[in-house]
Amino acid sequence: MAQQDTDQQHTGVLPVDDEGYVIDTEDCEEREAAWRERGTSRPITVVGNPVLHKECKDVTDFGEELQQLVADMFASQRTAEGVGLAANQIGVDLKVFVYDCPDDEGVRHVGVVCNPKLVELPAELRRLDDSSEGCLSVPTAYASLARPDYAEVTGQDEQGNPVRVRGTGYFARCLQHETDHLYGYLYIDRLSKRERKAALQQMAENEPRYPVVAND
């Protein structure tokens, strides 16, 4: 069989590098704006809402409804000034997250991942970073949380094509944080009981800077 033309080897939304990882650092401003401008910002669902505390459903339909959801997620993320947003954070029970996040070198990454799975890292790549972490669904609260400073996620793009995304530093934290969301975990679930209580107290004492869905 003849080798396929390079442009035909990957039919996904984003190009890939020589190792098969998406190149999500090009045309970031234009791509994010194109999504956001056709989306509607929705209020953020906060800790305590059941949709945040269970595994989401797999994405199986990559049609117009998903495209509009992704657009709404980019719009909501911008309103809340976040760097990543999972679908259940706007009340939608589907495994999809968007991101607009810099890495520790200041390089901007913008993309969409459906049905993400974190790749288990070999021991030699598991260097922990205990930087501070926050969450739009736990507004105004922050806590130190140790996570690997490198992460890989596999999944699908918004058209259903397979994707591999990798990141370091802050972006690695984002990939892990958003994937956690879609399996029913908030970052505060990884804290000690004392630290979790302190984070929830921070949240209770302050007003979020963006619209949220009240837990009645």
UniProtKB/TrEMBL annotation:
* Presence of the UniProt keyword Transmembrane in the record: no
Q: What Gene Ontology terms for biological process does this UniProt record contain?
A: translation
Per the annotation, how and in what number is the cofactor bound?
Binds 1 Fe(2+) ion.
Highest taxon above the source species? Bacteria
**Where, in this chain's numbering, is Fe cation bound?**
C135, H177, H181
Active site positions, chain numbering: E178
Which InterPro entries is this protein grouped with?
Peptide_deformylase (IPR023635), Peptide_deformylase_sf (IPR036821)
Which reactions is this enzyme annotated as catalysing? N-terminal N-formyl-L-methionyl-[peptide] + H2O = N-terminal L-methionyl-[peptide] + formate
Any Pfam family matching the protein:
Pep_deformylase
Q: Which family does it belong to?
A: Belongs to the polypeptide deformylase family.
Which HAMAP family does UniProt cross-reference here? Pep_deformylase (MF_00163)
Protein known as: Peptide deformylase
Which organism is the protein's source? Streptomyces gancidicus BKS 13-15
Please name the gene that encodes this protein.
Answer: def
